[in-house]
Amino acid sequence: PVPVLTGFLDMEEEEARGRPVGVALDGEGALLVADDVGNTIWRVTPAGSGSTVE
Asked: Strand 20-25's sheet: what is its strand order?
């Protein structure tokens, strides 16, 4: 397996920063990740940058 998205688990603090519960692709090829802990949708581009969806 190859990780495609990391950062939801903080290994030093041993806690989760979020809980991804759903994924989808948008029309531009970005990965949309639904996080039900933070009530956030993360948008991750193929280049690796991430942002939240407003």
From this structure: 20-25, 31-35, 40-44, 50-52
